[in-house]
Write a structure and sequence with these properties.
This protein is mostly helical. It has one domain. The chain is 77% helix and 0% strand.
């Protein structure tokens, strides 16, 4: 049993270790919030939302200065647990009744899109000359949830480490590009907030990135986008099962990749469960509208800080290291995914 003083000392050491990177992330987030406020005062509204500004500022800092080891833990904490907490709390502001009209058709659209994106992404990868396993890695990242899907699928198909690194490196950069470009497409097509929310949820890689991509279209787009994206993330389990059936039939040489246990938390992360539970509580009236309104700014602060940390973790040079074939496969796949998502969203809403 650890003495109370020992526990306090251990907690203190953890906080000291996290402080530099966390303060850096908070500083970038604060700058993004100030710029967003300045935009609103000058132009009447923030044309580039603080969530997006935080990513851009983080990437800009990372492009000219790579944070050393003392900064890494805090940045990772802001981009990980802090981010997950913000996503979980978002559930308290989402009422299922607001999107219940879509119902079963939306769920079927998610299933069709995920497996269609897997097949299409694989075919595109093979067409540009990638190996079967690398093609599957990129297809899984685009279809489900970016790097998380790549990491989950890699041991299932016994992918080579260099392929995993290439897929993750380019996906990190492409994910930021999608967050920045998708709102422009939504505005050009004059999509309604709920329609755009479905598009963002079906297209953007990670749950937090959906918040940034949907923010320019307002809270309805954010709420719809987050829920659709969570439905898509829940497809990671079935996708891993399908990949396990496909893997023995692949013709390229398999690598020795450590296969972790596929625990429930790996297939369904804790923050998704928390999001759904809080959404249920909000839908049942256990969380009042006033309480949800007070939680909203907390979610914003957490997610802006997390976006800053994500930007600080993106190396723009990874775009060039990934190679032209990986770049072509991932880019063509995401364009096809976005076009399909727009058509499905317009049909559903």
């Amino acid at each position: 049993m650890i003495p109370l003083g020992g526990r306090a000392h251990a907690v203190g050491r953890i906080l000291i270790n996290l402080a530099p990177g966390l303060v850096l992330s908070l500083a970038v987030a604060g700058a993004a919030m100030l710029l967003g406020g300045l935009e609103a005062r000058l132009f009447g509204r923030a044309w580039i939302e603080p969530l997006v500004l935080a990513i851009l500022l983080g990437v800009a800092v990372r492009a000219v200065w790579k944070p050393g080891p003392r900064w890494v833990a805090g940045v990772a904490f802001a981009a990980g647990p802090l981010l997950e907490a913000g996503v979980a709390l978002l559930g308290a502001t989402v009422s299922a009744q607001a999107i219940a009209a879509a119902g079963l058709p939306l769920l079927l659209a998610v299933v069709v899109l995920v497996f269609g994106a897997l097949a299409g992404g694989y075919l595109i990868g093979r067409a540009v000359g990638l190996t079967p396993r690398l093609s599957l890695l990129i297809a899984a990242g685009n279809a489900v949830c970016g790097n998380s899907a790549i990491v989950a699928v890699a041991p299932v198909i016994k992918a080579e480490a260099k392929d995993v690194a290439a897929a993750i490196g380019f996906t990190a950069v492409l994910g930021v590009a999608v967050v920045l470009l998708l709102p422009l497409a939504g505005a050009a097509l004059n999509l309604r907030p709920e329609t755009y929310g479905v598009v963002a949820g079906l297209t953007v890689y990670a749950v937090p990135q959906v918040l940034a991509a949907a923010a320019p279209m307002g809270p309805v787009a954010v709420q719809v986008g987050a829920l659709v994206k969570l439905m898509r993330v829940l497809m990671l389990g079935p996708v891993c099962v399908v990949m396990g059936l496909i893997a023995p039939r692949l013709t390229d040489r398999a690598a020795v990749w450590p296969r972790p246990k596929l625990t429930l938390n790996r297939l369904i992360p804790w923050f998704i469960v928390a999001f759904l539970l809080l959404m249920g509580a909000r839908s049942l009236g256990w969380i009042s509208a006033d309480a949800a309104a007070r939680i909203g700014p907390i979610v914003t602060a957490l997610t802006v800080t997390a976006m800053a940390a994500l930007g600080l973790g993106v190396d723009p040079r990874a775009l060039f290291r990934a190679g032209p074939r990986v770049a072509a496969a991932a880019s063509l796949s995401i364009v096809a995914l976005a076009a399909t998502a727009i058509v499905l969203a317009m049909l559903l809403t």
